[in-house]
Amino acid sequence: MKENVVIRTISRFLVPFIQVYALYVIVHGALGAGGGFQGGVVFAASFILMIIAFDLPYVRQRFNYKWIVICSVLGVTIYATIGLLCLIPSGNYLEYGAIEAALGIPHLHGYLIDAVEVGIGITVMAAMTSIIYDISNKGGESS
Predict the structure, then answer these.
(1) Rg (CA), the chain
(2) Residue 55, by phi and psi: left (phi above 0), alpha (psi -120 to 50) or beta?
(3) In angstroms, rounded to a whole number, what is the distance separating the alpha carbons of residues 71 and 67?
(4) CA-based angle 33:40:23, to the nearest 5?
(5) Is residue 143 part of a domain?
(6) What's the first-to-final CA gap in the chain, in angstroms?
(7) Is 30 within a domain?
(8) What is the pLDDT of residues 67-90, one digit of tens each?
(9) Is 60:25 a contact under the CB 8 Å cutoff?
(10) pTM for the complete prediction?
(11) Number of domains composing the chain
(12) Which residue range(s) make up the domain with 33?
């Protein structure tokens, strides 16, 4: 693709707003429409826009496979840790009320739900970005 100043300029302007909106969708998913999956996909869409505007090698320099793996592990770890913490006070997996009752902290379940949504969002963003990279790779580029 030829150098297109308009697309690159608009992309530089829009990507941060798309990513902030994705974080909004993730954090407010428990209260309304959205959640970790939807926010993760929106966040990955910002990488698609960057690939369209700047090409795959440029984006890979900024966010390579090492970071994708780190984000995947981090997201799954957040999700699994909160789920396992719920089992300690004889609750079910992801039964937030068990932690809240054991610690005696009111309204803790809201924060735990948000943390699980963040974990899901990070994992989905990393997985979708990995898929985007694999689809966009023309065979000549290495990880």
Answers:
(1) 18
(2) left
(3) 6
(4) 70
(5) no
(6) 22
(7) yes
(8) 999 999 999 999 999 999 999 988
(9) no
(10) 0.86
(11) 1
(12) 5-136
